[in-house]
Design goal:
mainly alpha, 232 residues, Cytochrome Bc1 Complex, Chain D, domain 2, binds heme C, single chain
């Protein structure tokens, strides 16, 4: 009995020792006798490397769907709900000098590239990127804060959403800063967009008129005639 027990114990110990000797299967370097690389190079999750356990493209652990960061307020309005956002959402931050200064900081780091230092829509990027309308127009002044907040949060036309770069408090600070600018900047005329285009359309015959009326219209003809004349 005693012998059997000790025989078992010896067998168990032998198995344990030999298991130790085999070591864990190493990550990239196969285990060899005396090779302790497997301590540093063991199967583990690395964010930039293929997931060794789940065979996913990355070992990076994604947060569960619906996870909310501590102190983060989710923004629950879809892109086409600007009016509803305008009616329901108000700026949770006080217009204190600190908040306005923070808004200025964010504006001058993110929005200024397109919207320009005074919100006129003349940022340096507009040489290559579509020129945004001025943020100093009466239309934007009349928007409730929620509406003004919604546009950059959800994106509009050629402006992408900035919700991934700027958290909601930063964006609300920017709204205070834009309101501050509107207090000192003159009201900008409405941009010559679709709204203004029909107004310009009757005058659109005028552009054709100055260019093409008595003087210009005949010019191509006479030019062509002159060319033809030159050819023949
Ligand atoms: C990459 C350039 C770019 C950046 C950066 C940018 N915007 Fe815009 N923004 C635009 C363009 C272009 C439009 C016009 C989009 C359209 O209607 O097609 C626009 C439109 C807007 C409008 C609506 C104006 C109107 O009269 O319809 C608001 C408000 C606005 N942006 C605020 C912001 C704020 C705040 C930021 C910074 C957080 C910001 N934008 C950053 C390019 C930009």
């Amino acid at each position: 009995m005693r012998n059997a027990a000790s025989a078992l114990a010896v067998a168990a110990l032998t198995m344990l020792v030999s298991a130790c000797d085999l070591g864990l299967p190493a990550g990239r370097t196969p285990h060899r006798e005396g090779n302790r690389l497997d301590m540093g190079d063991q199967p583990k999750l690395k964010p930039q490397r293929k997931d060794v356990f789940g065979a996913r493209a990355t070992g990076l652990m994604e947060p569960q769907p619906g996870t909310i960061a501590v102190g983060e307020t989710p923004y629950g309005y879809a892109q086409n709900e600007a009016d509803r956002a305008g009616a329901e959402v108000t700026n949770p931050l006080p217009a204190s000098p600190e908040v306005i200064a923070h808004g200025k900081f964010i504006y001058e780091n993110v929005c200024i590239t397109c919207h320009g230092p005074k919100g006129a829509g003349d940022g340096p990027v507009t040489a290559l990127f579509p020129k945004p309308p001025s943020l100093m127009t009466q239309k934007v002044r009349d928007w409730p804060d929620g509406q003004l907040f919604h546009r950059p949060m959800r994106g509009q036309g050629s402006m992408p959403s900035h919700a991934r770069q700027i958290d909601t408090r930063d964006m609300w600070s920017v709204i205070h800063y834009i309101r501050e600018m509107q207090k000192v900047e003159p009201v900008a005329p409405p941009p010559p967009t679709a709204a203004a285009a029909p107004v310009a359309a009757p005058a659109g015959q005028a552009p054709a008129a100055p260019a093409g009326a008595p003087g210009a219209a005949p010019t191509p003809t006479s030019g062509a005639a002159a060319q033809q004349g030159a050819k023949s």
